[in-house]
């Protein structure tokens, strides 16, 4: 049986997710958390994904300075009920979603792809000149040599 792709989030899911992200960031910035692990930690909430029924949400987080993302997510998951209560007071939704926190891996993945694209062998594959090791990467932009002669340019 073929694996089905997940549907793209609806506009409402995106809007609610962004509202949750913004409100969670405000709650974390206030710093009125009793957990000593979270008290002095600066947290970046990069994204919040909401389930189609709006009853569950996953917040992707990164530590701003020190600490590992896994430890941060574990500490935030221990305090998830507190955050849900705070969200319920600040956001007007029929149901306040159950929160889960997960470490954000998107920056690691972007760095991995960037490092891969910078390898000489890959750069050679992407360059216009097959004999040039690490030649220029085609950015898709037109250069003057790609453009037809324009009589108004004086060429």
Automatic annotation (TrEMBL):
Gene Ontology molecular functions: ribosomal small subunit binding
GO BP annotations listed: maturation of SSU-rRNA
Entry GO terms, CC: cytosol
Superkingdom of source: Bacteria
PROSITE patterns noted in UniProt: RBFA
Similarity remark: Belongs to the RbfA family.
Protein's name in the database: Ribosome-binding factor A
Organism per entry: Rhodovibrio salinarum
Lineage: Bacteria, Pseudomonadati, Pseudomonadota, Alphaproteobacteria, Rhodospirillales
